[in-house]
Design a protein that fits this description.
Layout: E1 8-12, E2 15-18, E3 26-29, H1 34-50, E4 61-62, H2 78-94, E5 103-114, E6 120-123, E7 130-135, E8 147-149, E9 181-183, E10 189-194, E11 199-201, E12 210-220
Antiparallel strand pairs: 1-2, 3-10, 4-5, 5-12, 6-11, 7-10, 7-12, 8-9, 8-11
């Protein structure tokens, strides 16, 4: 089997170092009418005003923690969602998926509003396979709070713990052992990445609210797979094939 190096990241004398197995980060700039953006922001603020409580005042308001996790069904969001879904399919195709061999489900969608001084802590989405975030505002400076992406592991630290340890011998900004990558929000920017990727949102150091919409997608076998045979071993059957089970009767012994 032959392959081509994905990227040359360092050359020293006769030594060539190539970076293999990169994280697939999808980015697309969606053309959104400014009027539609303003309508979406007003809709999000209206939802936030109905449930403004936060577990931590330093944390951004996230709709999924307030029961607003189906924002893709909101009348003002439907047109935008269709653009995001199209890019999600393009992302899968770019990864090598046969789009006819999988079904894509939009499982959750929620707005996020970050006031000055607020952030979102490090986390990932174990309930999903593919995650995406769309920025409704942002000037690319990063002042309103960058998206910070963390690697699953430091393949090149050689001695475990060196890449994130204090006063270690590894340059923390070196591209082959970087502890994170920051992405500045820009109005209309859509970012897609594997849902298992740890990520966070840095502090909003601007004087404005930061608006974004998050999406969680799940992949399964298509609805027709299973008629003449089982779906692929590691791909869940289509939900239409699932059987909902009643819980045990109250007081019943396990």
């Amino acid at each position: 089997m032959s392959w081509s190096p994905l990227s040359v990241v360092a050359v020293t004398s006769d030594l060539v170092i190539t970076s293999l197995f990169p994280l697939a980060l999808g980015q697309a700039h969606l053309s959104i009418d400014p009027l539609d953006t303003a309508v979406l922001m007003q809709a999000i603020l209206g939802l936030r005003d109905q449930a403004r409580s936060n577990p931590d005042p330093d944390c951004a308001w996230t709709g999924d923690l307030q029961g607003i996790w189906q924002f893709h069904r909101h009348p003002d969001a439907r047109g935008l969602v269709s653009l995001v879904v199209a890019q999600a399919w393009a992302y899968l195709s770019g990864l090598g998926f046969s789009t006819s061999a999988v079904a894509l489900h939009l499982q959750r969608c929620w707005p996020v509003v970050s006031e000055p001084g607020q952030l979102v802590g490090r986390h990932h989405h174990p309930n999903a396979h593919l995650s995406a975030v769309l920025y409704l505002n942002g000037d690319g400076s990063g002042r309103s709070g960058c998206l910070r992406l963390f690697p699953h592991q430091f393949c090149n630290e050689l001695v475990p713990g060196l890449a994130v340890g204090h006063d270690g011998p590894i340059d923390p900004l070196h591209s082959l052992n970087r502890a994170w990558v920051d992405l500045a929000p820009v109005a209309g920017l859509l970012v897609l990445f594997p849902a298992s990727t740890d990520h966070a949102v840095l502090v909003n150091d601007s004087d404005d609210l930061r608006f974004s919409i998050s999406f969680d997608f799940v992949l399964t076998a298509p609805a027709g797979v299973g008629d003449q045979g089982a779906p692929p071993e590691y791909l869940a059957p289509h939900p239409s094939r699932w059987q909902a089970l009643d819980p045990p009767a109250a007081g019943a012994e396990a």
